[in-house]
Design brief:
By secondary structure, the protein is an alpha/beta fold. The chain has four helices and eight strands. The protein has helices spanning 2-14, 48-61, 76-88, 140-148, and strands spanning 24-30, 64-70, 95-106, 113-115, 121-122, 132-133, 138-139, 154-162. The strands form two sheets. Strands 1, 2, 3, 4, 7 and 8 form a six-stranded mixed sheet that branches. A two-stranded antiparallel sheet has the order 5-6. The longest helix is centred in the first third of the chain and has 14 residues, at 48-61. The chain is globular.
Length: 182
C-alpha cells in the first residue's frame, strides 16, 4: 500500500501539463539495517530499501534522473553531497523529488525532525539522558533548504520513517499539527 501511495504521488508530478518535457530529478534513500545496533532492534526494517528501489524504477520510466542511495552507502555525508548535486540539476519547469525511507527521530523538547543516516551514532551520556548524537543525523530542514535552493517549479518531499526509539512517546503527535487522533 505504501509503495502505491508513493507511486501515485510521483506519477502526478511526473507528467507535464504543457510544453516540452521538464527536467525531473529524484534523490531516493532507503535503509533497512543501520550501523548502530540500537536502530536495528527489535529487528532491522524490511521494506525501506525495496520501496525506494521500486519507486526509482517507476520514476525512471517517467523520465526522472534518479539518485538512489541504499543501506551502507546512505551515510550522512553521501546524502548531503547527493542532494547538493541533484539540486544543481533542477530547472524552473522541472520537478525535484526527495524520498527518504528508514528511521526518523525527533530530539526531546525540540521541533527538529531527523532522518537517520546509515552512520547515525550514539554518544556516551549519563543514565536517563538522550544518547543519540544528532550531529550524525540528517535534519529534514536540510532537505527543505535543498528544495528551496533549487530552481524546480515543483518540489516534493516524501518521508516514510518508523521511529524505533527506546524512549518511546517522544514523537510529534497529531495534536502538535492541530489534527485529531483517529
Amino acid at each position: 500500500m505504501r509503495i502505491l501511495l508513493w507511486t501515485m504521488l510521483a506519477i502526478l508530478v511526473a507528467h507535464p501539463l504543457h510544453g516540452a518535457e521538464p527536467v525531473k530529478v529524484a534523490v531516493l534513500v532507503g535503509i533497512n539495517e543501520y550501523k548502530h545496533i540500537e536502530l536495528n532492534r527489535p529487528k532491522p526494517l524490511q521494506y525501506a530499501e525495496r520501496d525506494v528501489t521500486e519507486l526509482a524504477a517507476v520514476l525512471k520510466k517517467s523520465g526522472y534522473k534518479v539518485y538512489l542511495l541504499l543501506g551502507r552507502e546512505a551515510t550522512l555525508a553521501k546524502i548531503q553531497a547527493t542532494l547538493e548535486l541533484a539540486r544543481k540539476e533542477t530547472e524552473a519547469s522541472g520537478v525535484y523529488l526527495i524520498g527518504l525511507a528508514g528511521h526518523g527521530m525527533q530530539q526531546q523538547n525540540s521541533d527538529v525532525v531527523y532522518y537517520c543516516a546509515w552512520d547515525t551514532d550514539q554518544k556516551i551520556v549519563a543514565a536517563g539522558k538522550d544518547p543519540w548524537d544528532y550531529q550524525t543525523m540528517f535534519p529534514l530542514s536540510d532537505a527543505l533548504a535543498s528544495m528551496k535552493g533549487s530552481s524546480a517549479g515543483s518540489r516534493v518531499l516524501m518521508m516514510d520513517a518508523c521511529r524505533n526509539d527506546p524512549t518511546a512517546g517522544r514523537g510529534v503527535g497529531t495534536a502538535h499539527f492541530g489534527g485529531r487522533p483517529n
